[in-house]
Structure formats: C-alpha cells, structure tokens
Amino acid sequence: MFLDYFALGMLIFVSLVLFYGVIAIHDIPYEIAKERDHPHQDAIHYAGWVSLFTLHALWPFLWIWATLWRKERGWGFKQQNKLNHDLSLKMEQMDHELTKLKLELATLKKADSRGNDMTSQEGHH
C-alpha cells in the first residue's frame, strides 16, 4: 500500500519536473532576445509557445533567430561592410605608398647612374 502511494507521488513529481523543464527550455530564445533588446522578441516569444505544440521542432530556429541580433551591431551586416570599406581604404593607402616608393627608387637609380656616368667620363679625360 505504501509503495503504491510512493509510486504515485514519484509519478506526479517527475511529471511536474518534466512539465516545468519543457516550459523553462522553450523560453530560452525569448530570454536571449529580451537580454539583447531584439526587435522581434515578441514574435520569438509567441513562436516559442507555438513550438510547444510541435514538440519544440521550431526551437533551434528560434534560438538562432534570437542570437543573431546584437544591439551594438544589429544583424552584423553593416559592421562587415564597414570592415570591408576600411580594408579597401588601407589597401589604397598601401598601393599609394608602394607607388611613391617605386618612384623614389627609380629617381635614386637614375641619379646613381648619372653619377656613375660622370665618374666614368672624368676618368676618360
């Protein structure tokens, strides 16, 4: 008789823990979205509840959706474009410096060859 009540109590306890666990897990994407001040946090929250009825089939997509957004950089695309722009500016500057150095080297070689020509002409006279 005691074991029957104990088994019933364990069944109720395990059921409640599993129920609470599923509810707590389904809310993780919403909590991430709320923490990051996501512009679609309400949609993520509602989709999380819908995901309960699909046995959490949508949950991984909601987690990805929630983690893509960051307040300081948005979806991240603008930051990448800015990085590419900065990189292209640096490449242009380096190309300009290289051209300038090549010109200086050519000028030095020309001056050196004139100096050698003058020295060889002085030796013949």
Automatic annotation (TrEMBL):
Record field: transmembrane: 6-25, 46-66
Keywords, comma-separated and alphabetical: Coiled coil, Membrane, Transmembrane, Transmembrane helix
A Pfam short name: DUF3302
Transmembrane helix in keyword set: yes
Highest rank taxon of the organism: Bacteria
Coiled-coil stretches: 84-111
InterPro entries named among the record's database cross-references: UCP028770
Protein's recorded name: DUF3302 domain-containing protein
